[in-house]
C-alpha cells in the first residue's frame, strides 16, 4: 500500500510534486510556439537540429505527451503510488531528447530533468519510495 512521510513532514513530497507538475506544464510552451498558438518572444520555435515540417509537428505532439507524463507522475507522488518513478524516468528520457532537438530554445530544461532524476534516485531518503500493492487474495510474505 503506502508509506507515511518519514520525518519530512511531507515537504519533500510536495516539492517533488511541484517540480514534476511545473516541469510538465512548461512543456506546453513547445507546441504553443511551434503550432503558432501564441508568439513567445523568448522562443523561436525552430529546432536546433534540422527536421522537416511534419517531423516538427510530430515532436510538438511529443511535448504535449511529456506534459501528461510529468503531471501524471506528480499526481502519483501526491497519492503515493509506486508507479510515479516509472513515468518520471520515461518523461526525463524523452524530455532530454526533445531538449537536444530544440537546444537553442530548451537547453535550460536540462536542469529540471536533473532535479527529477535526483528525486528518483533519492526517493527512499525523501520518503517517496511507495510500496507496490500486494495482489488481491495473496498473503504478504
Structure class: mainly alpha
Percent strand equals under 5%
- Main sheet record: none
Uncertain residue segments: none
Structure, explained:
With 141 residues, the chain is mainly α. The chain has one domain. The chain is built from 6 helices and no strands. α3 packs antiparallel against α4 (84-101) and α4 (84-101) packs antiparallel against α6. The radius of gyration is 17 Å and the shape is elongated. The model has no long low-confidence stretch (mean pLDDT 86).
Topology diagram in text:
Blueprint: H1 11-26, H2 29-34, H3 53-78, H4 84-101, H5 103-106, H6 110-121
Helix pairs in contact: 1-3, 1-6, 3-4, 4-6
Summary, kept brief:
With 141 residues, the chain is mostly helical.
Tags for this model:
58% helix; mainly alpha; elongated; single chain
